[in-house]
């Protein structure tokens, strides 16, 4: 594609550069191929401008960057440098133009907790009525038959929300494989870094906003502003906003959208336990292994049996149901279809077969709010003791550690503190920061030893929540990425215990 077409109305292009042919693009010099455009952006740990020379050596034909003055040697390059106010935004829009294919229905979910389950549930609801649906997020790309993609492998970075170039280059083969409906997770990092700009987002949902990633966003206010970008700027004209108004930030978001008036014709659908919600949750009752949820909408009550654990999972299911409804599924398939949902991997996932009949649940809860919600959701299922086993990630918001320790101490009977992904931090100091807020906690590490010790203590009526890593299959310790899955470690230990009991 000619540079003049790629950047039309996005940047001023010098005449001599207009006819340059661009074969691809990236904001990472290491991914540049001959003929590409390199976007040199300032990041949180380094500055893309440092890598301009490397990108040119790799074959970059054009450089896109911000308006800061060019210092030597950048001021004397033969390769054209296009300067714009916001190179990430221009890159995202150029990527959308370059790959130019998007599913006809795109729905994005944002919020601190619930994004993964909600997108997975929405994909399941669409697939059930035989719509060709995919989801992209923490679990990677799901729901697409790669055989229909001529064996193409979608190599997305392991992020909740991929960068704009990875995303648009993946959407093109997905569309070619027939995908018409896409559910996406919109992380606050992704929104701030404009990874979703250039997408035609028809439906956006807000789950909740609680303390997480404050290391990146500094305070709740900027975290909220990051999330609201999805609704205030990215959601298309006449799109639908699905908002949890039990959360005060959800209420605020509704007010902000309403204040925009009719100009964008956004349809707002609210949900929650609140009396004034459009989809009002009347109650959620655990009965045996199911949750019975009743929801009032338009004067009619829906009673929906859900094959899952935890009130918040029921709320995530409802969010997906309303999104499906706003995408055109009738209520009997959108709300009624919730009865057929299966929990997403590592989201309140049960590991069965404990020799004493104890219940083991693996959940990704790695925030204070998610930990409390998971423990409170499990409490009705405990007839003896509620155990929790968790740690906290290194190089991430340290203020979470004491909060999570205090919550575990309050909401569980037995607290086992172990390692999560310590990354570059000292694991012992992360554990002690958690334990300082939990007098009843016991320290056991490494993580597999902690899981084994807990499983061996459990008796009938006990429930063990293994929190923090959910679906993850690796553990990040120092510079090493080691294979580790809570689900397979727990399953293996249970199998060994059963063998020993024979
Ligand atoms: C903090 C953060 O979001 N970092 C992401 C971001 O980095 P950045 O822009 O701050 O980049 P940087 O490392 O300072 O580098 C600046 C620029 O130089 C470029 N560069 C750098 C080195 C080089 O050799 N050549 C080169 O061109 C980089 O590609 C980048 O464009 O852009 C990079 C390229 O797109 C991402 O890979 C990187 O994700 C890192 C791996 C990451 O861990 N991100 C996490 C925090 C994240 O985004 N998490 C959210 C979910 C959180 C949640 O809700 O749980 C997510 O959406 O996954």
From TrEMBL:
* Any single biological process term in GO: cell division
Sorted alphabetically, which Gene3D superfamilies does this protein's record hold? Mur ligase, C-terminal domain, Mur-like, catalytic domain, MurE/MurF, N-terminal domain
GO cellular component terms? cytoplasm
N6-carboxylysine: modified positions = 227
Q: Which SUPFAM superfamilies match?
A: MurD-like peptide ligases, catalytic domain, MurD-like peptide ligases, peptide-binding domain, MurE/MurF N-terminal domain
**Limits of the Mur ligase C-terminal domain:** 346-470
The record describes its post-translational modification as:
Carboxylation is probably crucial for Mg(2+) binding and, consequently, for the gamma-phosphate positioning of ATP.
Tell me the domain of life.
Bacteria
- The residue ranges of the Mur ligase central domain are 109-323
**What does this protein need as cofactor?**
Mg(2+)
Per its database record, what is this protein's job? Answer: Catalyzes the addition of meso-diaminopimelic acid to the nucleotide precursor UDP-N-acetylmuramoyl-L-alanyl-D-glutamate (UMAG) in the biosynthesis of bacterial cell-wall peptidoglycan.
Q: Please give the name of this protein.
A: UDP-N-acetylmuramoyl-L-alanyl-D-glutamate--2,6-diaminopimelate ligase
Q: What is the lineage of its organism?
A: Bacteria, Pseudomonadati, Pseudomonadota, Alphaproteobacteria, Candidatus Puniceispirillales
